[in-house]
Amino acid sequence: MAGARAVSTPRGRLGGRVVTGLLLIVLATAAVWAGGAVFGALVALAVLLMFAEWAVMHEIERRFRLAGMAVIAAAVMFAYLGVPDRALFVAAGGAVLLGVFARNFDRQRAGWIAAGILYCALPGIALIVLRGLPGGFEITLWTLAIVWATDIFAFFAGRAIGGPKLAPAISPNKTWAGLAGGMAGAALVSYVIAREAGISLALFDYAWIAGLVFAVVAQGGDLFESWMKRAAGVKDSGALLPGHGGVLDRLDGLVPVALLSGLGFAVALR
Questions:
Q1: Is the pLDDT of residue 264 over 50?
Q2: Angle at CA 188, nearest 5°, toward 6 and 218?
Q3: Eight-class DSSP state of 241
Q4: Who's near 45: CB < 8 A, 6+ residues apart?
Q5: pTM for the predicted model, two decimal places
Q6: 115 in a structural domain
Q7: pLDDT digit string (tens) for 118-177?
Q8: Range of the domain at 75
Q9: Is residue 25 part of a domain?
Q10: Which among 54, 164, 169, 178 is placed 20 to 30 Å from 38, CA to CA?
């Protein structure tokens, strides 16, 4: 998750967090480099795990959980096949249809079913579209690296500096110092990668500005997931990733950043 901790973290847990984080970065980078079916499979696995955790968090019935996963898988498949318009249609249409149908059985959770499909499917579609663009390897890695930098710099700046809380009612351990550190790290990484990879960022004027904006967006995604967990009465979305919690916990900042990056490059390269 993007964000900072103002409290100390046990050394063992911090070590597990660092090791898991590094392994995930290596895995993601290798998949982005490979592209094609390898990257598509990793994205599909990630978004399906996200929806599974979402469904457990909101106590969604198994039949709706499986139906939602089928919709997400179909949407990702269409994106991989190079027809993102159909992918978006499947994701949006499936979310609406399942949400309306579920109202007949569980009115309270019908909205969460539809929202979960969109929350998980749309960033998956965006990442696959980004990887398929000219210079897709550099663009996709740039997008991921900004989120990683936000997470890493925010975490350690918050631990080292502490200070006023960012949103204590939602996530009491995050600080303004963490946000500032995440923004600084994201701006630096964005500028360096864009310059070295030759990425055109006319849409954002300067690469460092894009890093600042994306860092704030990533933090917003983190806070949204923290609010959702608080509303559901859970500490983590899952326990799959040592030191991080669940897949939703790890990818909450990437969700809005992937959408913004995909939309930005789609418009810029039209």
A1: yes
A2: 55
A3: B
A4: none
A5: 0.90
A6: yes
A7: 999 999 999 999 999 988 999 999 999 999 999 999 989 988 998 889 988 888 888 999
A8: 11-268
A9: yes
A10: 54
